[in-house]
Design a protein that fits this description.
The complex is a heterodimer of chains A (about 475) and B (about 250). With about 475 residues, chain A is an alpha/beta fold. Chain A has 23 helices and ten strands. Helix content of chain A is about 50%, strand content about 10%. In chain A, the strands form two sheets. Chain A has a six-stranded parallel sheet with strand order 1-10-7-4-2-3, with helices on both faces. Chain B is of the alpha/beta class. Helices cover about 50% and strands about 10% of the residues of chain B. In chain B, helix 12 (about 215-225) links the parallel strand 7 and strand 8. The radius of gyration of chain B is 17 Å and the shape is globular. The chains are: A alpha/beta (about 475), B alpha/beta (about 250). The interface between A and B is large, with 78 and 73 residues.
């Protein structure tokens, strides 16, 4: 049962999740795969005695950075410019995309490679560039797979986690001419590798994301497991790195905190295979950094939600979320899915993403795994209040809640409603046992209605 | 020490046995228990749906019912957590007193009464369902996500029960999927989560699933019954009160 449908004809989370779950074996596989990643994260965190202290430290550094964002960004710009990096400022997704297109056009380039950057997904860069005649090749293996399939990533660290190896085999057969029905991961990876090498070598421009930008040095760090950021950048004469304003950290030594937390939280690895540090363009190369706001300063101004900007995009909250694991990333209909997406996206578009803070049981596991201690589940609750206040909750729900509030404010009315309700349920079970009208009853029996409430018993026997 | 017994609205209406077990257990442990007859609800259904602003009347009623007692005790981690975090009113002094003195049943038994023995017996195989709000909200037990020492207040009490064999499901503290109105607005995910919990308890061949929150148990019971399972749900108060009740 859904109460919110996105304006663009996109299914609400609840409806999309129902479709996802209709294939139960695949849902189980998705759930178990991500639970395995969560378990690896647990093991990795248990090996670090000072794990909880590290989380507190990371949270404090991010809080401090967010409170001094203007100064640190300015410092970063000065240092980076002095190092020969060109800095661009983008207020929104449109400006971000235009800056990149302008750089491409200036050089007369018609193609580029791109390593993983959720910011460019958020800005819908690929469709924009393609519309302008640019060939964009995503070089992260998972991203390349979903790009072939004209899908979006369903997970910010594991973009193709919704697909099984036979799906990848079919996709590669279609796009790379691999043998039909050959599901061997090594064979398929080999094919992708050959294909991507060609793209790396022939691309004059490489775009990367930024995991951490360091104010003190004007440098930045990109973390990958496949080395695809480096390969693209090494072969290209122009490197563009795109970052949200919140990626800034004060000092190089702060990396010692974040790099220990990031990969352990994400996949259970001690560190990503590649943590590439960029400080200045090599001789003959051009290096650009695009610093993007796109709603972040608005979020910074929301007292209850500002610390969502501490996020380092590890996706630990995805992997632990029992709802995410059973509904898949596409159900969240946004670039960043999962619990963190559910508190970030209402800031970008409250109406279109009003369903997301409700796609949670508020179990709180997300906040516990978060390496920078974002109180995710509490923000989900607070977003619900904001969305109701702003009128983005279905009117029927509001009427029901008003009725409930009225009943609960009057003990006599509550007793009357309870007595009548239980009597009706006992006399006419069919009233509640209706799968169309009562979503509870679709796959669950109703609780039995006793003849006597506790209060009635108490009054009869104890007063 | 005067205890005000808070019985959540749906427990009062649908699970009077749980309420009775709680009342009897507290009384027999020597507590002076008062049950304010005007009580209704904690206000959580409205608040979790985004309408905390509508629960003022409900909150005022709660405060007027419980402002005079030393402790408020309830057989529900979820309702207690909600009140602890969100109860406010025009009589803010009374609201603060309640927020600071409201306890979920098992934490009241372990932390305030410091119960060390219970004359209870329940010779059955029981699966422990760890309810999220009690665990992650009230810290009734340690959490698998955190690197902190292991403990469990509900388990500490169950270990005092004669003959009981308690097991945890493989994923010790994964949510059952109830989630308040989530259970109807996200029906598909909610039921799938519940089914998956039950599957893990089935591996342990349990006869009962227990926990500190009736809401989780009601959701699991609905699925168990629909699927014709022999496994029953039972609130922890009913187990802790089991032998006592028969002697009474």
């Amino acid at each position: 049962m859904s109460d919110v449908i996105n304006g663009k004809g996109v299914l609400s989370h609840a409806d999309a999740a129902e479709v996802f779950i209709s294939d139960e074996p695949r849902t189980d596989w998705h759930d178990e795969t991500l639970w395995f990643v969560r378990s690896k994260r647990d093991k990795a965190s248990l090996q670090v005695p000072e794990w909880e202290e590290l989380r507190s430290l990371a949270s404090a550094i991010k809080d401090h950075s967010l409170s001094n964002l203007d100064n640190y960004l300015k410092e970063f710009e000065e240092k980076a410019t002095a190092n020969g990096i060109r800095i661009h400022w983008a207020a929104d997704a449109g400006e971000h995309n235009q800056i990149i297109l302008d750089i491409l056009k200036k050089h007369g380039f018609s193609k580029m490679v791109k390593s993983k950057s959720m910011l460019t997904e958020e800005c819908h860069l690929n469709p924009f560039l393609e519309k302008n005649g640019i060939e964009v090749v995503d070089t992260d293996l998972g991203e390349r797979i979903v790009q072939f399939r004209q899908e979006t990533p369903s997970h910010i660290v594991l973009p193709a986690i919704h697909l099984k190896k036979q799906d990848v085999s079919d996709t590669f057969h279609e796009h790379l001419g691999t043998e039909k029905g050959n599901n061997d991961p090594q064979y398929l990876t080999e094919a992708a590798r050959g294909h991507l090498r060609e793209k790396f070598i022939s691309s004059p421009l490489a775009l990367t994301g930024v995991n951490f930008a360091i104010a003190e040095t004007g440098g930045f760090v990109v973390c990958t497991n496949e080395g695809n950021a480096d390969m693209g950048v090494h072969a290209a004469s122009v490197h563009i790195a795109c970052m949200g304003v919140e990626k800034i950290i004060p000092r190089a030594k702060d990396l010692a905190v974040f790099l220990r937390l990031l990969a352990r939280s994400a996949t259970g690895q001690p560190i990503t295979t590649y943590s590439s540090h960029f400080h200045k363009p090599r001789r003959g190369q051009e290096m650009h950094v695009v610093i993007v706001d796109n709603g972040r300063s608005r979020q910074l101004g929301r007292a209850d939600f500002r610390n969502s900007l501490k996020c380092i995009r590890c996706a630990a909250c995805f992997n632990t979320c029992p709802v995410y694991r059973r509904s898949g990333g596409h159900s969240y209909h946004t670039a960043v899915a999962g619990p963190i997406g559910a508190i970030l996206n209402p800031n970008l578009d409250m109406k279109a993403n009003a369903d997301l803070p409700f796609a949670s049981t508020l179990c709180g596991s997300c906040s516990n795994v978060c390496p920078v201690k974002i109180d995710i589940h509490e923000q989900l609750w607070k977003w619900r209040q904001v969305l109701a206040e702003e009128g983005h909750v279905a009117p029927s729900k509001k009427v029901a809640m008003k009725g409930l509030a009225f009943i609960f404010s009057s003990p006599a009315l509550f007793r009357f409603a309870g007595r009548v309700g239980r009597k009706m349920m006992r006399a006419f079970p069919g009233l509640m046992n209706n799968k169309k009208m009562n979503p509870w009853y679709k796959q669950r029996e109703m609780p039995e209605a006793p003849a006597q409430s506790f209060r009635d018993w108490f009054k009869e026997n104890k007063t | 020490m005067k205890i005000g017994l808070f019985i959540p609205c749906y427990v009062d209406q649908f699970f009077p046995d749980v309420a009775r077990a709680t009342y009897e257990l507290l009384t027999k442990l020597g507590c002076e228990v008062e049950y304010p007859l005007g009580q209704t609800c904690c206000g959580q259904p409205m608040a979790n749906s985004g309408f905390a602003s509508l629960s003022k009347g409900c909150d005022a009623n709660f405060i007027s019912c419980f402002k005079h007692v030393d402790y408020v005790v309830a057989p529900s981690g979820s309702c207690v957590l909600h009140l602890k975090e969100h109860l406010h009113g025009s009589d803010e002094k009374a609201a603060t007193h309640i927020r600071e003195h409201i306890y979920e049943l098992t934490e009241f038994l372990t932390d305030v009464l410091k119960v060390s023995t219970l004359p209870a017996s329940f010779p059955h195989r029981v699966g422990m369902h760890v309810s999220c709000h009690g665990q992650r909200g009230l810290h009734l037990s340690s959490m698998t996500e955190l690197r902190l020492p292991e403990f469990s207040k509900p388990m500490q009490l169950l270990n005092m029960v004669e003959g009981i064999e308690v097991s945890y499901p493989e994923r010790k503290d994964e949510c059952c999927g109830f989630g308040g109105t989530f259970c109807v607005f996200e029906e598909a995910v909610s039921v799938k989560m519940g089914k998956d919990r039950i599957k893990e308890h089935d591996v342990n061949e349990v006869e009962y699933i227990t926990g500190v929150d009736v809401s989780c148990l009601m959701h699991l019971e609905g699925i168990l019954k629909r699927n014709g399972s022999k496994v029953k749900t039972i609130h922890i108060a009913e187990i802790l009160n089991h032998e006592l009740k028969q002697k009474a």
